[in-house]
Write a structure and sequence with these properties.
Layout: E1 10-19, E2 27-32, E3 54-56, H1 58-66, E4 77-81, H2 89-101, E5 105-110, H3 120-127, E6 131-135, H4 141-148, H5 153-164, E7 168-175, H6 183-194, E8 199-206, H7 212-217, H8 232-242
Parallel strand pairs: 2-4, 4-5, 5-6, 6-7, 7-8
Antiparallel strand pairs: 1-2, 1-3
Helix pairs in contact: 1-2, 2-3, 6-8
The protein binds iron/sulfur cluster.
Length: 251
């Protein structure tokens, strides 16, 4: 296993003490500050800036999380999200390494926009991650760029890296009507998922506009005004287009 180098403090946006949908079981969720993407549907644009609400060491974050340990049961634990937690890979690897020393399960919720397989911190982080939740927002590089501001080579390579190294993955897609619901592209996503090992779950998250007000408060132009949440029929069509993958339907 790669050595975990001691890093600087983490740049933290916020904590959520009882998260039920961000990894197995009940989890303590840590949102890190800073993201290289600018997804049109992002509901946390306040996490984009690298400036944190506060800084904390790995020991301090773990101490904050551990206060809730009795609620986690056998499955739960600690999830890092953001923003983009891979953008602070050294800190995240140190935190997950400490968590594992204490028998705490780790989950990384990432869009992998900064993944590089030759980065030692990244290798350490993924070696200390029990479950990677990977957002694959769009398979086509140029449409991915139109949606997020960047192409997707690092995202797909992260999926391949986790697959090659025996990791466990949940793969997610946010379904935005008219934007990320092209059946041919969803079929390509399904083929890509079937080419991977270690995918335990695929889930489609229905788009919602809950973040729009945050965009407006931050003086940003929200480009999806007027787009409605997908219907159950649209979700069913999307699952059918993806095809046979391990899935979990959203209620
Ligand atoms: S990757 Fe996540 S946090 Fe970053 S812009 Fe996209 S939805 Fe927002």
């Amino acid at each position: 296993m790669p050595q975990v180098a001691l890093s600087a403090k983490g740049r933290i946006h916020s904590y959520e003490t009882f998260a039920a949908a961000d990894g197995p079981g009940v989890r303590f969720l840590v949102f890190l500050s800073g993201c290289p993407f600018r997804c049109r549907y992002c509901h946390n644009p306040d996490t984009w800036a690298a400036e944190p609400a506060f800084e904390a060491s790995a020991e301090e974050v773990l101490a904050a999380a551990s206060r809730y340990r009795e609620y986690w049961g056998a499955e739960g634990g600690l999830t890092l999200s953001g923003g983009e937690p891979m953008a602070q890979a050294g800190f995240a690897a140190e935190l997950f390494s400490l968590a594992h020393e204490q028998g705490i399960g780790t989950c990384l919720d990432t869009a992998a926009g900064v993944f590089r397989r030759d980065d030692a911190d990244m290798a350490s982080l993924l070696a200390e991650t029990d479950t990677v939740i990977l957002d694959i927002k769009e398979m086509d590089p140029s449409r991915h760029k139109a949606l997020t501001g960047a192409e997707n080579a690092s995202v797909l390579d992260c999926a391949r890296y986790v697959s090659e190294n025996g990791g466990k993955m949940w793969i997610r897609r946010v379904l935005v009507p008219g934007v990320t619901d092209n059946p041919e592209e969803l079929a390509e996503l399904g083929r890509f998922i079937r080419s991977l090992r270690g995918v335990e779950r695929f889930e489609i998250l229905p788009y919602h506009s809950f973040g729009a007000e945050k965009w407006k408060r931050l003086g940003l132009v929200y480009s999806l005004d007027g787009v409605e949440a997908p219907s159950q029929a649209a979700l069913d069509r999307a699952y059918a287009a993806v095809g046979d993958v391990p899935r979990r339907r959203q209620k």
